[in-house]
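Hey,
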Amino acid sequence: MRAGEPFAAPDRLLDDTTLEASAVVANSAMNRERQLAGVNSYTRELGFNPLDWLLTRTRRSRQATMGWLDLCCGTGRGLRQAADALARDGLDDRVTIVGVDLVDFFDPTPARGQALRLTCASITSWSPDRRFDLITCVHGLHYVGDKLGALTRVAGWLAEDGQFTADLDLDSIRRADGRPVGRLLATALRAAGFTVDTRRHRIGRRGPGPVSLPWTYLGADDRAGPNYTGQPAVHSYYAEAPGAR
């Protein structure tokens, strides 16, 4: 959309099942080989090393195991590196790592030890069998249809004092007429217990809790074009509840 052009809803919206078959979403060629640390890594994208974070919590906790869930994990390469490090140090029985991705294109090299489990599934329908101390989603929400629904679900997967952090482009969440929900959405997310950093396009949360947001998902547009990352992304459309403005 060129500057100055009015916002408009797309001529068709996709449900999540159709969206997940889109070439924009089900793309095994995009950057999916993120390392644990280094230039193209979780550490660089998140601003902290997830494995170091978990090990620090492990030393302070009496829990039998700590859990890290990575949504939209790509090949799982960085998760395998974390699992290898845990096995090397004899700690793979203290940490469980779960990676979930829509595309079954996982790194063929098996991880050492027993810490890692990779699952091919949609995060809009998949549910874990445990709560997690750390949940991450690096640039994955850009390709999810019902982004607000995913955030609502994730809030229920956190352990007490668990940490969630993800990239979120608020501009990609839109009203039925095509306008971004914008500041109203940021305010509602903060009221629901999330932290929102609009400058860094980052959302977070500490601890579990019920989430109720005043929008109903309508569908998604896979023709939205590049977002702030420069990569094609997905716009998600919502109807507002009365009084949400």
